[in-house]
Amino acid sequence: MADIGKCNHSSAAGQRGLSGCWLKMIAVITMFIDHAAATILERLLMQMPAWGPITQQNYQGWYILYTVLRTIGRMAFPIYCFLLVEGFYHTRNRAKYAFRLFLFALISEVPFDMAFNQGFFDMSYNNVFLTLLIGLVTIWCSDMVIRRTETENFSKGKKAGMIVLRVIMLAIVLITGSVVAEILHTDYGACGVIAIFIMYMLYHRRMLGFALMVLELGLLGGIIEWAAILMLIPMHFYNGTRGKQIKYFFYVFYPVHLLILSLICWIMGLGI
Can you spell out the DSSP letters for 175-232? Predict the structure, then answer.
């Protein structure tokens, strides 16, 4: 997840708009709503315990609520993708950034499996930190490709050749990252990696990049993902600032909230 900090509207006096932290808070809240529905409510709908609030008579109403909550949850991932690219450009040490994502991917796996796989370790479906890590490595490699295929000092003919080479190498990098995500069965998989790549390539035109990223997620991940287009509104007000730092808060929130939701399910007798 992107390196952002304390929630204030700016890092400089008089600057208006939303800082990166406020975007992350939107992502955290919508993610929590989504995961609460995907764990507690989904299990209630599937198991329909006799003591529960869901009956055959009111099932449709609860299912509609479930669908609405999961739709709200679609807002989170595109924001995380955008902030990952922001972090890529602004972090002081990309290697440490990648290591943090790797570390929290490991930390989060058991809570993630408890929440979504109803077990303690299941490699059939893995947490979003892995997707973000693969996405980060993909755009890091893409950045190196672009830098090493600069055409400023080449003749017209050689420039065309370098451009073709760049396109081929970028395609190889993107396909490799996508395949790795699919092999590891990460959350959002290849379409998540592609979304990060789109945001990276259109970093300097973030509204267009964000819109195309949501379009791609809808086409490859399901129509419901298009609900995230509403996030263009807060994106419009993003002022490019980080705010003061709350170290690791947003990293820790992910495994902790999954663990809490899993424990609630266990207490309710809905499995781990």
Answer: HHHHHHHHHTTBTTHHHHHHHHHHHHHTGGGHHHHHHHHHHHHHHHH-GGGGGGGGGH
Closest CA to 60 of 48, 51, 72: 48
Taking Cα atoms as reference points, which of 115, 173, 179 lies closest to residue 149?
A: 173
Query: Mean pLDDT for each 10-residue chunk of the chain (272 residues)?
Result: 46 68 95 98 96 95 98 97 95 95 97 95 94 98 92 69 91 98 97 98 96 98 96 94 78 97 96 85
CA distance 206 to 235: 8
Global pTM value = 0.91
The four Cα atoms 66, 72, 269, 53 give a dihedral, to 10 degrees, of -40
Instruction: Report the SS3 class of residue 246.
Output: coil
Number of other residues whose CB lies within 10 A of the CB of residue 179: 14
Beta carbons of 2 and 86 less than 8 angstroms apart: yes
